[in-house]
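Phytanoyl-CoA dioxygenase
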Amino acid sequence: MLAVDAKTFELTGVLAHYAEHGYARLGRVLDAHGLELLRERADDLMLGRVSYPGFFWQMDAPTGRYEDAPLGLGWQGPSLDYRKLEKLEKDERFLAWMRNPLFERIARALLPPGDISLYRAILFHKGQRGGSEVPWHQDGGKLWGLTRDPELQVWTALDDAPREGGCLEVVPGSHRWGLATPLGGVVPTDQVAARGAERLGVALPVEAGEVVLLHNYVWHRSGPSRTGQRRRGFSACYMDAATRCVRKKKTPRDFFPLFRAGEHP
C-alpha cells in the first residue's frame, strides 16, 4: 500500500518537526490501490457487508454537537452516518496498513526500545451532512486508564479534507504544556482562552492518501465538513508494549501486538 520506499524515505526533518511542534506531515504515502482498499472496507463495515465480533460503533449526533453523540448504542444497522468505528485491528486491510514498514520505522524512532503494541485503531467519519464538531482535546490522562500515556498517533486521510471539509487543526507546541487536566480529553474553555488556542491554531488540510503524525498531548480538533463531501480519517495509536491498563470499573484491557523487538523494517 505504500507509495514510497520505506527504507529510504527521509524522516530526519519529519521527526524534528514532530518533536518541536507535536505534529508532522508525511505527505501522500498511501498509494491509490491501498486508498481504494481502505475506503471500500470502511464502507463495507458501515453498511454491514463485513462484520467482526467485539467491534465498536458510534452514530453521529443529528445535531452535529459533539456532546450529543449517543453512547452505548453500538450497531444500529447499515448506515453511512456512523461517527466512529473502533477495533479496526480486527480487519486485515487496516491491520496491514498499520503494520507497514514505514510506520514501524517511525514508531521505533519515537518509542522506547522493545515491543510495540496498539492502543486503538479507529475510523473517524464525517458524513455528507457534515458530521460533528470535535472541540480542542488531548488523547491521554486518567481517562485513558494506562500506566503511561502513549505519544504517537498516525492519522491517514481516506478522503480529501480541505479547510472547510473537517480537516484537523492543531496548536503547535502544545504537547510541551503537558495535560490540561489530570483526566485528559476535552480542554476546558478557560484554558482554551488563556492559551490563545483560537489565535495559535493551525489548520492541516490534506488530500486523500496523506498521513499526519500527532503527539497524543498536542491540542487538536476538527470542525464539521461544509463541502457536502464525506471525510474519513483513520487513526492508529502506537505505544510501548510494556504499557498496562489500570482501569477499575471494567476488566483491564489487553493490547494488540504490532511489532516485536528485533524484527526491524
